[in-house]
Amino acid sequence: MTVTYLLGAKDGELLVRAARKIVTAIAAEGRIARDSQRLDAAASRHLQKTAGEKLSVPRGVFVTIKRHSDGELRGCIGFIHPTPLWDAMQRAAAAAAFGDFRFAPLSADELGDVAFEVSVMTEPVLIEGGRGEWKKKIKIGRDGLIIFNGGYSGLLLPQVPTEQGWGVQEFLDNICYKAGLATDALYDSGTKLMKFECQVFAESEPCGKVVEVVPAAAAKRRKAAK
Questions:
Q1: Could you give the CA distance from residue 78 to residue 176 in angstroms, rounded to a whole number?
Q2: What sign has the CA pseudo-torsion 58, 36, 11, 145?
Q3: Domain assignment present for 170
Q4: CATH code (residue 110)
Q5: Residue 43: which domain range?
C-alpha cells in the first residue's frame, strides 16, 4: 500500500488543539448528554469553522484520549468512511470524550490529566487471500485492521499492536475479539479483512507539545530492546 500523507506538523497541531478545545467547551457546559443526537448538537455549537484546504479533504479519522498519569485509554471514537476532516475530527473528539460507552463521560476536572491523539486514515483496502496470506501482508507498526463477518465488525488502529507488543498473529486474534468474533473466524470464508495506514499526531502531555507519532518506529525500538 502506497501512502501519500497530506498533513504537515502545523496541520497536525491544529487538529489536536481543536480536539481539546471542543471537548473543553462541551465539558464546561456541565450538561453532557450521551445520546448521539444531543451530543452531535453539543458538538455543533462549538465547532471551529476555520480550516485550510488540507484539513477539509475527506479522510477517515479517529480521536483517542488517554490518561497521562497511567497511559490508560479514556475514549476512542472515529469515522472510517472519508468525511471532511476538520469537522469530522471535532465530532469524533466530542464522541470520544462523552459518547464512548465503555467509559463514563469525561469531566472538566479530568482535562488536566488526559492527552489527545488524532489518527488520520488512508482509505482501507481489502487484503486478498485467506489467513495464511493475510499474515504475510500485515506489517506491525504500519497497518491498522478492520474485520467484517456477517453483522460483526471491528477496527484496531496501527499504533495499538506496537503499544501492546503484539505480533501479527496476536493482532489478528485481537481484531477478532474487538469485533466480538471467535478467533476461528479467521478461517471463515465469509470473513473480510482490510488494512489501512494512519498519520498520527498527539500531545506529548496534557496541553503540551504536539508531535507526530510513527508507530513503525515504536515497533522497531521495541524489537531492538528485546
A1: 19
A2: negative
A3: yes
A4: 3.30.700.20
A5: 9-122+199-214
Q: The whole model's pTM is what?
A: 0.89
Cβ of 137: how many Cβ atoms within 10 Å? 14
C-alpha cell at 80: 472510517
Q: Based on the fold, state whether residues 210 and 103 are members of the same structural domain.
A: yes
Q: Based on the domain organization, do 21 and 63 belong to the same domain?
A: yes
44 & 154 share domain: no
Cβ contact 127:194 at 8 Å:
yes
Give domain status of residue 209, yes or no. Answer: yes
Map residue 198 onto helix, strand or coil: strand
Do the beta carbons of residue 46 and residue 22 sit within 8 Å? yes
Residues 111 and 40 occupy one common structural domain? yes
With respect to residue 4, please indicate whether it lies within any of the assigned structural domains.
Answer: no
**DSSP three-state, residue 119:** strand
Count of domains for the chain: 2
What amino acid occupies position 169? Q
pLDDT by residue for the chain (226 residues), tens only, comes to 444 557 999 999 999 999 999 999 999 987 776 777 888 888 999 998 877 788 989 999 999 999 999 999 999 999 999 999 999 999 999 999 999 999 999 999 999 999 999 999 999 999 998 777 898 999 999 999 999 999 999 999 999 999 999 999 999 999 999 999 999 999 999 999 999 999 999 999 999 999 999 866 554 544 555 5
Taking CA atoms, 220 is separated from 121, 216, 226, in Å, by: 21, 6, 10
